Amino acid sequence: MKKKLVKLFAASALFAGLLAGCGESSGGSSGASSGASGDTIKIGLNLELSGAVASYGTGINQGVQLAVDEINAAGGVDGKQIKLIPVDNKSDGQEATNGAIKLTDQDKVVAIIGAATSGNTIAQVEIANNKETVLITPSGTSMVVTVNEKGKLNEYAFRTTFIDPFQGTVAANFALNELGVKTAAVYGDNASDYAKGLGAAFIETFEAGGGKIVKQESYIAKDTDFRSTLTRIKSADPEFVYIPGYYEEVGLIVKQARELGIDVPLMGGDGWDSPTLVELAGAKALNNTFVTAAYAAEDPDPMIQNFVKAFTDKHGEAPDGFSALGYDTVYLLKDAIERAGEADSVKIKEALEQTKDFPLVTGALTIDENHNPIKAATILEFVDGQMKFNSKVNPE
């Protein structure tokens, strides 16, 4: 889950001009949202357009907007125009829940795209299941988005990105096999399902591969001074530090780690994926750091380069992985609606479950029995503040 150069544009401007068409409901399955009115198909957006992780939601939003513009300009979906209905969840779980209630009860959308984070997606899952409305997170990686803690499938929840265990496993194998390290420390947000999922998978795979975890530490979201904990990590003398977390804290962690003389390779997941990370950490401090990501903007694949050009022409900068995932989510949903034969959420759910080898910017995608995509991950390396393609890892 790729260059991360998204700017925080105003949400209202991003949604201008997409409110086409009106009319009476076209019907659909009993108890489910049809989401079709006259010449439009209503899709909800429940994204972090403000608040702590607004960079993620804004990136997804830009990718979604580009895809919708392209699809509508080409005639829409089965002759109907996509109408986006946005909600800003303000990077807050309760706001995400309230947004899902509005989108299903009041707006009667056929599907919801979002949220960007696992926690804000999980906050919508029960509503999506109860209202029989498809929910697709472009970037929420926690296992319990699609399968709850009791092992039961969340019937209407899907995702476009890979899951936490895959990211953690890829990072551990990269550290062992490509960087050749034998000892590592793990430093993650102790309240984040995302960080805990990546960290657990990393530890399991690293130890199974013969590596040794010499230190495990945690921090609290919104912390700004990490020096005491980083000093303990430095004392353990790891050859590598895995830092699963979000850019707000990670940027300061990387900066302070380098100031304390921790010069070993650092690595994280797609939560690092924000231009704000470079602003917080500094370009020099980020050298010799690595990220598991959805795609690389430098990849010569024609589909990727066509997307990068279209996005850059519109926004004046290359798209990050969140933009790519937002873009792909719209096209995944379009394909499912077309195969379903109508904008009916139950039928769209069934079509999504049958998705196999569907080509997308972030890689060909197959939906497995747990509503998770089987797809590749890309490893990026920071070089003087820029994210450069390192390698691509396919699922085993």
Give the overall average pLDDT.
Answer: 90
Strand order, biggest sheet?
A: 8-7-9-10-11-14-15
**Count the strands?**
15
Structural class computed from helices and strand pairing: alpha/beta
Count of alpha and pi helical runs: 13
Radius of gyration: 20 Å
Q: Main β-sheet, in a few words? A: 7 strands, mixed
> Residue ranges: pLDDT <50 for 5 or more in a row?
1-31
Distance between the termini: 17 Å
Measured as a percent range, the helix fraction is: 40-55%
Strand content is 15-25%
Quaternary arrangement of the chains shown?
single chain
One letter per element, helices H and strands E, the order comes to HEEHEHEHEEHEHEHEHEHHEHHHEEEE
Shape: globular
In short:
The chain is of the alpha/beta class and 396 residues long. It contains 13 helices and 15 strands.
Can you describe what's shown?
- The chain has helices at residues 11-14, 54-73, 93-106, 118-131, 164-178, 193-208, 227-235, 247-259, 275-281, 283-286, 302-315, 321-340, 345-353, and strands at 36-37, 40-47, 81-88, 111-113, 134-137, 157-159, 183-189, 212-219, 241-242, 266-268, 289-293, 366-367, 373-374, 377-383, 386-393.
- The protein is α/β, with parallel strands linked by helices.
- The strands form 3 sheets. It has a 7-stranded mixed sheet with strand order 8-7-9-10-11-14-15, with helices on both faces. Strands 1, 2, 3, 4, 5 and 6 form a 6-stranded mixed sheet that branches. Strands 12-13 form a two-stranded antiparallel sheet.
- The radius of gyration is 20 Å and the shape is globular.
- The two termini are 17 Å apart.
